[in-house]
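Quick illustration, no need to memorize.
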Amino acid sequence: MTVTNETAVPRKGHWLSRWEPENPQFWDATGKAIAWRTLIITTANLTMAFIVWFMVSALVVRLPGAGFKLNAGELFWLAAMPGLAGGSLRIIHTFLVPLYGTRNVVAISTLSLLIPAVGWFYAVQDPTTPYWVLMVLAFLAGLGGANFSSFMPSTSLFFPKRQLGTALAIQAGIGNFGVSIVQFVTPWIIGLALFGSLAGEPLPFTRAGVQSQIWLQNAALVYVPFIALFGILAWFMLRSVPVRANFRDQLDIFKLKHGFFMTLLYIMTFGSFSGFSATFPLLIRQTFGGFPNAPDPLAYAFMGPLIGSIMRVIAGPLSDRFGGAVVTQWSGIGLIACAIGVSFYTAPTSMADFPYFLAFMLGLFFFSGIGNASTFKQMPMLFEPRQAAGVIGWTSAMAAYGPFAAGLMLGYSITLFGSPNAFFYWAAFYYAVNVAINWWYYARKGAPNPC
């Protein structure tokens, strides 16, 4: 790792020559403006990344009604595939910023999102599109999920430790709003001929015996200009912190015991948030879709990610004030209660059970959002800046498998047991193990590593 301390001017186009966020004079005179500009631009790009990553979860619930011949297992696999890709590609993104710098990574990663967006625009216009093509495009949507593991470590390098909880919570929380945006916008954007015949013809859509016309392609096309704009903006306006390390140097994070524990904790929080965000619409459809007055999944699905995102923003300053470990402890306890609680309403006899099911599911988003912020406060307190950035990237990569794991396990749970409860019981057990780890090492009085 090399950090130079010269005049705070760009070097080689986008590399800063000096970066000392812990120096009050440097921070007030120079650092603060650069850091907040970086946060704003990177957060806008991260929001687009989450939109593309969860675009598939908003589309799959509409595909059967639009004439796509897909069974429940295939739909869950489509919803799970972006998670598999996102987690796998995040492993690569973990190491990119010290190699190529913030400007290059953010700009190029964002522009790569045009591939799945344009691909889905074409694919959903034809119900005979082969399933393997849909699976490839679902995998490519995982490019959006990958970006988190380079964007967030980058931001952790720009701010002093005393503000990292707030800065990371703002970026991740607003970025997470992308999930709510795509799930909220999709139902009405596909009902309008926004671009006329220039964007293709509508498809007949049947729901509860009623037929209408929808433009599924709008759900992808509407974001294309924003992806291009934000990617170009990043290229011209971002700079890179002079924290450099080759690939071998960065592997030292795998020797850190607390890196492993923080990975488990972040899987508990963001793994839950991302997993439930991807599967919530299908879970509503699978559990309550058989009733005559069944709810429209996308009329409710956006609520969960919205609540989780808001709580992530709110919990950041709280974690700065009270300590990340304490906030994580309450997050885990809440997750246990909600995972057990929702299992009582997954075999409904009428729509009267739906409000209780919805409340416990939203509770899972509420507490996972809190923990998403608090765990990111803990990591920079446990490790030096470059290692903290690497641990944030790696834990983010592992937690990004949430949509894949949740989609796969919920699908198997329903197939084997006729109910998603096996999954929720396993989740509650996992949460309990993590609450114990967090309490012992970080949250209890006299903990060896309070953070």
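The longest helix spans residues 257-288.
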